[in-house]
Amino acid sequence: MLEKLELSKSGYYDYVNRKPSNQKKRKQELSEKIKSIHEESHEIYGAPKITAKLIQSGIKVSEKYVGNIMREIGIKAHYIKPYTMTTKDCDFSPKLRNILKRNFNPERPNSAWCTDITYIWIQEDGFVYLTSIMDLYSRK
């Protein structure tokens, strides 16, 4: 098989028995430390914060190198979106009157409707609005 690949026996055995270089050893150790820091942060930290943690622990490394290692081992930072206020308490003006007066059983269809709106968070689109309208006579 070595003849078909045009490789020498000594070259093959040299490759098989070769010990990892210091650079590979360091990269492997860094990969393990980066994974552990990333998991400790609940997968929130990216390259800048992981680099800062490594520097705090006495390991001299650049942010670009940490980013490259993260890309190679397939980990990413997950951005947590800040809380978005969806509703605001409003002051009820005196112009608004209670027309229904708690009569939730009207005598004819379409004389009283009830409605509500809610906000639903969807990962791809953000907030979407769901509104429901119900005729109090038929309850549909």
Notes on the protein architecture:
- With 140 residues, the protein is an alpha+beta fold.
- The chain folds into two domains: 9-73, no CATH class; 81-140, no CATH class.
- Helix content is 35%, strand content 14%.
- The chain has a two-stranded antiparallel sheet.
- Helix 2 packs across helix 4 and helix 3 packs across helix 4 (63-73).
- One of its GO terms (biological process) is DNA integration.
Radius of gyration: 32 Å
Low-confidence spans: none
Share of residues in helices? 25-40%
Strand order of the biggest β-sheet: 1-2
Features of this protein?
single chain; 140 residues; alpha+beta; two-stranded antiparallel sheet; 4 helices; 35% helix; elongated
Blueprint of the fold:
Elements: H1 9-17, H2 22-40, H3 47-56, H4 63-73, E1 113-122, E2 126-135
Antiparallel strand pairs: 1-2
Helix pairs in contact: 2-4, 3-4
Outline of the structure:
With 140 residues, this protein is α+β, with helices and mostly antiparallel strands. It folds into 2 domains: 9-73, no CATH class; 81-140, no CATH class.
